[in-house]
Every structure is written in C-alpha cells, then in structure tokens.
Amino acid sequence: MEFDHKKYQEYVRILNEELVPAMGCTEPIAIAYCAALMKDTLGNKPTKVIINVSGNIIKNVKSVTVPNTLGLCGIDTACAIGIIAGDSSKKLEVIANVKVEEALLIPDYIKNTSITINHAENDHTLYIEIIGYFNNDYAKVIIEDAHTNVVLIEKNHQIVFKNDKEVIRKKLELDHSILNIEDIIKFADIVNINDVKEKLDLQICYNMAIAEEGLKNNYGANIGKTILKYGCSIIDKMKAFAASGSDARMNGCDLPVVINSGSGNQGITASVPVIVFARENNLSINLLYRALVVSNLCTIHIKHSIGKLSAFCGVVIAGAGCGAGIAYLEGGKFREVAHTLVNALAIISGVVCDGAKSSCAAKIASSVEAGVLGYYMFKDGNQFVSGDGIIKKGVENTIKAIGELARVGMCETDKEIIEIMIRK
C-alpha cells in the first residue's frame, strides 16, 4: 500500500519524538531539570530560591513521590533534588543517578534555604520559572509548554540563552495535523519496523519492567495487586499490569518509563495492556510492534486535540488508544479501530485530572477496561452513535468534540480543581 513519503517521515518523527524515556512523574522531573540548569548557571547551590509555576504543574507535583528522594514529595523536594544532585544533561532522567547520601541532604537543604513557591498565572498550562540566589549573584531558568523546552537562561541580568518565540514554535511543532485514524492504520500496516523499533523496544522493556515491579512490591494503593487478587481473566491482567506500573511510578519507583505525549501514565496505558494481550495470545513480535504503533499514534492524535495539561484525564485517551491496539491485534482495520475509539471515548470521557498521585492507577484500570469494552462492543455488533451525548458522526468529528470539551468546556473545572488542591 502506498503512503506519501513526506507524511511517512513525519509519522516516524512523531513517534520517535513523543516516545521518550523519563524517570518519575514528568512534572516534578521537569522542575528538577529546571533547578539543575539554574544551579549550573549560578555555579553554586543557592541559599534563596523563588519558584513560579503554572497551576497544572502545582496539580501534578503536589502529591506524587519524587524518585530517589527517600519517599518525599512536593515542588520544594523536586527543586531541591535537582539542585543537590541533578545532572541537567540527562533532561527527563536528570535525577536517575542520585546517591542515598545526596537524598539524605534534602530535608536540611529545604529547612535552611528560603524557598518561595508562587502560582504563576499566565497563558501557559506548563510553566516553570526558577530563580536562585547566592551572595550577590542570581540565575534564572524558564521552561514553557513542554517539559524540557527551556526558553530563557539568565545570570546577573545577562542573557545566557534565549529561544525566539517563533523558533520555539517551529522547533516544538511536530505536524500533528497530518494524523488521522485512517492513515494511522495504513501507516501501521506498511511501516518499516526498523524505523520505529528502537523506541518500541524501549517501551516494551521499560514499561513492562515497572509494571512487574509494581506487582512485586508495595506501592501506593496497590491497585494492580488488588485487581489480580479478585480476577484472573486476560482483561484483568491487562488492567492490573497497567495499573501496577502507575502504582510504582506515582509512589517513588526509580525505574524509567517511555512516555507518550509528555506523560508516563499515558505511555504505560497505551502500551502495557497491548503487550500483555499479545503475549497471552502468543502473537508475533512483528504484529505487536504494529499494534503499538496504532495505540501510540491514536493516543498522540487524540491527546493533541486536548492539549498538554488540562482538567481532562489523559489516561482516558490512552485507554481508548490501547483498545485500538487490541482491535488491530485481532485483525481489525480502520472500521474496527474507529468504532472502538468512539465507543471507548463515549464511556468515560470527562474523568477529571486532579493531579498525579496514587489514584491515577485506578483511573488507568478503568480506562483500559473502557478501551477493551469499546472494542468488544463493536465486535458483538453494538456501538454508540451520533447524538449519544457528545458523540458525533465519524471518528475524527468525535475526536474534535472531545478536544473542545477538554480545552474549552473544562477550563473552569481545571481552575476549581487547582483551587481545591491548594486551598489551606
């Protein structure tokens, strides 16, 4: 099947740039990265720090355990570990190599350092600004719109680095507009696996490893273990493995994951259930690769319509994506995948994101179930149709409606969630 060469290359680029390794929840890791850059620029550990962050950063850092901090959480912790032991060259793996003796320094550093945290109210849902002071010197680093997108580094009123806004836009802007479900299926059918194999192999290795770790040891509310205690079907296993990956990740496990659309939980949800289903059914690795292409790209496509951070829980989208991957594994093409996505999105769209924390694992389990149910509904001749709530005729129109719900309709919801979370 022919596939336009330019479009093919952009699909490959989208996969390779959206599927990247990260250790820990990406928002606190982004703070640690920003703090490490600030410390490097300043040349010393600051004795005073001002942290200005957007509401969605506050929401996603407040309750999640930061890896390699001996169980600590919070914005001040993420900043402190970045300053004390961060390696800025590693970006989203900035605190991957923290030693225990370095982690032990965090409480004293926070106690003896003036750290001020402010809610930065601007147009950026993802915004981190960290200013550090040492004697008469200061350094400032700003990250906007993407977790590693540094737009300004400044020291003592001198600009060390600045990214022009138009350059930033072009640099950040993968051409997501070319994504559509029909072409995603065509691409999965014909893609040269070698073009995407490296990232997919990492996703299989990393995301299954953290899922297995979550089932082996105690993390958070142990959602994955609870599911397996009371059920042993293949759907139970898919839900449990995905949930256990989040159990571990949200509660301080230092194993990396391959993220999707800036989120580790979305990366886990889009991949782990598909991997479990393929392994349980002894399906070929080649077919699994292609199903992961479908799941990941469907997730990226729908998530792009929503935006990076919002009040809409992103794992709902990834759950629909994994349902699409399962449909593909069973021989489904555009029709089966499209109806699976519409059905899945109709079931639990509107689940709110109230930050990264232990209950994310339970939302993942529900989202995986919705994705699989969406597929099995259509397989049995059942479907939701245009006019059922926000469902529109055609999968792309439904995706557009979901995006409008999240970006426009849930703006006030997002503000209220943040207000509830930070209210004393």
Summarize, please:
The protein has 424 residues and is of the alpha+beta class. Helix content is 57%, strand content 11%.
List the helices and strands and how they pair.
Elements: H1 5-18, E1 21-23, H2 26-42, E2 48-53, H3 55-61, H4 75-85, H5 100-103, H6 106-112, E3 114-119, E4 127-134, E5 137-144, E6 150-155, E7 158-162, H7 165-172, H8 181-190, H9 197-216, H10 223-230, H11 234-250, E8 256-258, H12 264-280, H13 285-306, H14 314-329, H15 334-348, H16 360-379, H17 395-409, H18 411-422
Parallel strand pairs: 2-3
Antiparallel strand pairs: 1-8, 2-4, 4-5, 5-6, 6-7
Helix pairs in contact: 1-13, 2-4, 3-18, 4-6, 8-13, 9-11, 9-12, 10-11, 11-12, 11-16, 12-13, 12-14, 13-14, 13-17, 14-15, 14-16, 15-16, 15-17
Task: Give a written overview of the molecule.
The chain is α+β, with helices and mostly antiparallel strands and 424 residues long. The protein has 2 domains: 24-171, 60s Ribosomal Protein L30, Chain: A (2-Layer Sandwich); 175-422, 2-methylcitrate dehydratase PrpD (Orthogonal Bundle), CATH 1.10.4100. The protein is 57% helix and 11% strand. It is built from 18 helices and 8 strands. It has helices at residues 5-18, 26-42, 55-61, 75-85, 100-103, 106-112, 165-172, 181-190, 197-216, 223-230, 234-250, 264-280, 285-306, 314-329, 334-348, 360-379, 395-409, 411-422; strands at residues 21-23, 48-53, 114-119, 127-134, 137-144, 150-155, 158-162, 256-258. The strands form 2 sheets. It has a 6-stranded mixed sheet. The protein has a two-stranded antiparallel sheet with strand order 1-8. Strand 4 (127-134) and strand 5 form a beta hairpin. Helix 10 (223-230) packs antiparallel against helix 11 (234-250) and helix 12 packs parallel to helix 14. The radius of gyration is 21 Å and the shape is globular.
